[in-house]
Amino acid sequence: MTTTITQDAPQASPPSNSSMAVADVERVAAMAASAASAVEDVIYGQRQVVEECLITVLAGGHGLLIGVPGLAKTRLVQTLGTVLGLDDKRVQFTPDLMPADILGSEVLDQAGDGRRSFRFLQGPVFCQLLMADEINRASPRTQSALLQAMQEHRVSVAGQYHVLPQPFHVLATQNPIEQEGTYPLPEAQLDRFLMQIDIGYPDERAERDIVLRTTGAETFEPRRVMTAADLMAAQKLVRQVPVGESVINAILRLVRAGRPDTSPIADVKKNVLWGPGPRASQALMLASRARALLQGRLAPSVDDVLTLAKPVLQHRMALTFSARADGLSLHDIIGKLCAYANDI
Question: What CATH topology corresponds to 243-344?
């Protein structure tokens, strides 16, 4: 099953058997709720982050986790891999990391009879959940190698294509503070991430739990709730969730209003350098369906679209220099877009 978002992906029709659809939704919603609970047993005080990560994976996409050091980003991805039953691997990105360090390389083997042949050794990208830690520290050359894997779910080495395991997801982390020795992700790669998930500091109650539970003799390990097959079935069901006309109109209204050339909003025309493309509309559609399924609903609502607008759009837009100098943020612009989209 291909889970990559493409611009010409057809919209699946709703299931013909409504009773079977309700049973499927209830089953997937129960598994997803158990998965969220299992993750929260290990990751404290980040309920919204956990939900957005699960939405990203259920929608078949990749996620970009943004947060300062010490907020359990690495632990979160490792926990998700265990809970979802996925083969997960981690790559620590550094400026000297080469594409072969991620994709793999061909080595020359010599048989006992003297004959030689090349053999491909798979790199860490051959997994179902790849954690790209501090992805912006890799050079553009290495980032481009990962881009092919994210978009096509295959890699090319020495002229040969190698298909990645299914499902395949990348959860990348990025430190928003330390920018020395980093390479900003190009817009084309940012657009391949379904959502940008911002991780903030936990509240006082959650931090108290962190202090008490992680410094004692007892350890809390995640438990497996789903399998890769369960996840792929859920991803297939996401694309079968019916979407109402009001939700489609809200998505189109929201995304198209974010483009400065055609936007009816004066602040967008003045302050936005470039806006979201059609892949943002697709991401909102899939993420809204996944959120509805995660919460046990048979169809998404306009509220799902408005709730997911920030994580879906914020890495697909850029402000002008003058707007940044005036202290304007993308969150302000996205808030205006949501108000406009909701005024139907």
Answer: Helicase, Ruva Protein; domain 3 (1.10.8)
Q: What is the pLDDT of residues 287-324, one digit of tens each?
A: 999 999 999 898 999 999 999 999 999 999 999 999 99
Q: CATH code for 15-94+127-240? A: 3.40.50.300
C-alpha distances (whole Å) from 126 to each of 10, 85, 169, 248, 302 are: 28, 15, 11, 36, 37
Q: How far apart are CA 91 and CA 176, in angstroms?
A: 19
- Whether 243 contacts 300, CB under 8 Å: yes
Please check the confidence at residue 11 and state whether its pLDDT lies above 70: no
**Contact assessment for residue 142 and residue 100, using Cβ atoms and an 8 Å cutoff:** no
Distance of CA 32 to the CA centre of its chain: 16
Burial code (b: 16+ CB inside 10 Å, e: under 16) for 92-101 equals ebeeebebeb
